Records
---
Amino acid sequence: MPRSIRLTVATVVLCGAIAGAQGRQDATPPDGPIFRVTVDLVQLDAVVTDKKGRHVTTLGPGDFEVYQDGRPQPVVAATYVVTEEEWVDTSGLPPLPPEALRPIDARRVVAIVVDDSRMSFESMHHARVGLGEYLDRHFAAGDRAMIVTTSGGYGAVTPLTSDVETLRRRVRNLRFSLWNVQAASALEPVDTRLFNPYDLEAEFRERAFALNAILRIQEAIKALRPLPGRKSVVLVSEGFSIGGLGMDHTFIRDALQRLVDASNRAGVVIYALDPRGLVPIGISAADAGMGPRRLAGLSRLRSAALRESQDGLRFVASQTGGFAVVNSNDLAAGMQRIMTDQRGYYLIGYQPEPGTVVTGRDEKFRRLTITVKEKGLRVRTRAGFYARPTE
């Protein structure tokens, strides 16, 4: 490292701790935040997988390349933090009461945000069944979770709990509301858009649903932030549009960037689950009464509407290093895949170029890209951050 690079005392200590842990596959999760921004160091988390989706755990600083706003940055530290091996097998011991479990003892922490404000009756049923099966089969001793609904309004976040019976009760209480009839799912407005693809009213509704989901996720992130280590938010939703025709979506994308930054600083990864499963988009018997003109474009528009709604889920998840589970009829398996992804992660530290961190109102959103030199590996990490120092 050139002598001109002068790190602060805190950064030296941090880099030394990370470098000292390099090569140890049993490194424990940090007690403090996993995402930090200083003048001399940016630290963030990332997951590296192979072609089969398996975690790759043996990489070091020299294997990573970090780009900030498209420009390469020097990587000064990288270590794999194992969370799975820190889990304690308590199968032969009496379980602790929920109130005895401290936040720092939690092995996996997840907030499940159910976007029930626009969910169809069938999707609500699938969500209840899938989440119930997840709790029955995969929720383990030491896990902590909360259930949040988008219809609950501001401040409706329930407390984290490790009591599986409490969580089962909250899942059973999820209900389809007749109010949802006015909040058509992503595929239902297709008929009106056959003749009016620039339906501003439909676009306005899509923006409203997207912003409502973002606000509820932000509340969940705020509740998770005080806990140490890496946490997750799972958005169970039929999706929402972040693009489309006829309306400027700059406001939504700005809200998403703020969401990404809040997620970063709280050490939260967002995942998404589409409860609709495999959605039929072809012509069915129910469409028999339509004229040839409508039938000709119906399947195409249904496919476009489905893809657009799922792109919203993919975008929200990918911006924070997560992924979206779509086109699957097994929601419980999707939840298990998400929980399996919590087994570990890399902590990567790089030295940002001068002028990255600013104070005041002139802050910019710095876009991040992390790659690895070995071919065939995929990196999932956060899309970027607002260039202000971590509090």
Note: Confidence is low (pLDDT under 50) at residues 1-26, 85-106, 189-195.
---
Amino acid sequence: MSQKPSIPKGTRDFLPEVSLRRAYIFDTIRTVFEKYGYAPIETPSMENLSVLTGKYGEEGDRLIFKILNNGDFLKKAKHLGDPQKLAYEICDRALRYDLTVPFARFVVMHQHELAFPFKRYQIQPVWRADRPQRGRYREFFQCDADAVGSDSLLFEAEFICMYDEVLSQLGLKDFSVRISNRKVLSGFAEAAGCQDHFTDMCVAIDKLDKIGAEKVISEMEGRGISPDSARKVMELIGFEGTNEEKIAFLRKEFATAPTGQQGLDELEEVFETLTYFSVKQAKVPFDLQLARGLDYYTGTIMEVVTHEIQMGSIGGGGRYDDLTGLFGLKGLPGVGISFGADRIYVVLEELGLFPEIGGTKTKVLLINFGEGTHEASLKALAALREAGVPAERYPGTDKLKKQFGYADKKGIPYTLIIGTEEVNNGVYQLKHMKTGTQHGYALHEVVAELMEGQS
């Protein structure tokens, strides 16, 4: 009995046209990463479970895809009474949740082979046991850039410029790089008297866009934060004004919050550094409500949103000074960002911003007329490829209608007709498939014509 083909929920197949569009996004991001001095690395799809757990907060840990151990583990596992030991006997590996924590592990393992500050980028898939929805998948690509080994806030300003440059090149015109600082969040907790519930406060604030202010207050109270403290936090994050007005307001509110003051100092330095660079499209608001619930952030945090369609964040990142310390390498500050390529794809598709990309890179299809033109056809194919023109010859001698239909379906812009008459005359017919026009050329002229616009 045949099996009905299917794939797991939250995963996707990509047809050629979609793959080429995705490559267009990746190539744009990669070019900007390299322009700013970042070099590529890759890490395994799976990591030891101990590497990943405890790095993403309580909610993030629940979304880690664990990998069941192979072999006769159950025979050994049933003798283990300790639940934690039992869990690790059954499962001690997991698919990576993001690229940042594996990068921290990578840096510690390869520290003697790297020049610091080390600037890397990575474009690879990650997996999260999340509920699939529009723009959110269980398997998706992240495009990360990170710099470790320096506490310079120049990196934060450059990352904002990188977001601006990539998204502007992709055609977006109305987007924001929202920025705050984890120390500012600590300042909220200090000013509201709930320092002992800092993580609880951040987790609740991070849900503000989804559940609203009153439910955030209720959630904070449910996590042990007093009603007065919860309402004070909401009062602080609810202040509106320019970046300068927000900083001035919090300076007063943080009179007894030294950590919060330090966060404001760092934000001011980022904004000052940013004035030396050209930011084309991005708005860069100091967002008091930005929490980003990942436990490893310690300084600057940022999130990118587009205002052109309704969509969640399409990028984000922050500073994580203590992350490599989790793997035994202390005193190595780091900061990084990520582009949400899959969400960016949805945005570009809905806004019609993709350039014309067919289902193939092939520029010309040579029509196959059979044995009498075989030699001339193969010589032309070789000459085109030698000149760098992506070309293919139809493999069989099917009817012309079928061969032209093949070119149409694949989105090949030109066909080259080399029949017996063309071989005898030495003049080949180059047909533009979209317009239907065709002209006769000698082979070297065909090559020259198709090379136009080639990089």
Note: The first helix runs from residue 16 to 35.
---
Amino acid sequence: MNMKHKITLPAKQVVGAFLLLFVAAIGFAQPKQNSPYSRYGIGDPLPSYFASQAAMGGMTAAFHDPFHLNLNNPASYAFLKSTALETGIFAKQSNYESGADKATNWSGNLGYLALGFTLKSPVNEVLDRKKSPWQLGMGLALTPYSLVGYNVQTADNISGGLDSIINTFEGNGGSYKLNWTNAIKYKHTAIGLNLGWMFGKASYENTTVFVDSLPTFTNTFRDAVNMNGFVWGVGVQHDLILKYNANNAELPTKWITIGASLDG
């Protein structure tokens, strides 16, 4: 009598837990910083790679790991051997100087929240004693894309120094990306696709106060920018096998990975 045992990943429970974390992350992950440069464009851009790639200098094109995620090249998800849930925070120290004025500012925020899993359990291959050349991976990820946060004040004089003007510039907000990743691998070559949505809001406020005018005159300008748009990315990775295990001709022990990715 032949008996087969199938082990399946608790996909519904895992995805449900991710969505719960996603809602919580949106609630607390408001950008906190004071960077004058975030006044321009959509704010200060943030790196999209995770801790495992940051430890390697931001290498993402050719990075894949059976237990870690690499969002920058979606093809890497096809190399996963188990479910991976990754999250992180970041901190940054900024030093600003203008003439004799100096300031130091610490900032931080949610770094990322990502879930990835294989769609073909490797345990089933062991139980069935049959290894398939095809592998499939999928994932969801929430990452900040840009941060807006500044509070700058300047003082000027006009009319021969008789009138004083104080300008205050304030801004806050940011943008995020929600990605859905799919990848497929045949033997040692994998391709992947990221489909996502970028969303966010940034508010800007400029206030001018004429201190020496009678009565004191104040002018305030407010503006808000909503950011929404479709984003995508593709990637490919290939392992050039240099050496196999002496006792297992299908188990590589040395290889070189080449990869490329494109975002749009």
Note: The radius of gyration is 25 Å.
---
Amino acid sequence: MQDVALGGSEVPRDPVSVFCLTGLASEQERAYSLPIKISFRGTNFEIGRRLNVHTQRGQFPTPEMTIEGANISLSYLMVGNAGSPRLSRGIFQALMREARVANADGHFDYILHANRQKCLSLLEALEPHDSEVIVTLRQMLYFQLETMAFCIGTREL
């Protein structure tokens, strides 16, 4: 598994972005949240897929975050990393400490659940269909879910 080079520069990619760029299903080391807007325990999250918009926290690139009251916007959110399975949650926890949001684990679990549900709902919708593109799309979703499974424990930043 490796990141796909785009335009000569390394841009982190996941199975979803590789499929959108190339139409191919490809295993990748990382998985990023689908675009999502959710509310959980009084906090409203808007998570994008702008993988090239980030800041540096120590040695780690992390999403750009904006906070307006109870609204938190992230340019992206890593939700799985085969090479460092504890990193996704660790990054989210560090961001939530900065945002002064309690129960970061609960929020992160809710975001993971929403992402799994979106992937599973799409797989269910594709079930009665069969074409080359559908088979590739299905495989991409399996790769995304598989990479999301590499989100175990926490690594402190």
Note: Residues 51 and 147 are 16 Å apart (CA to CA).
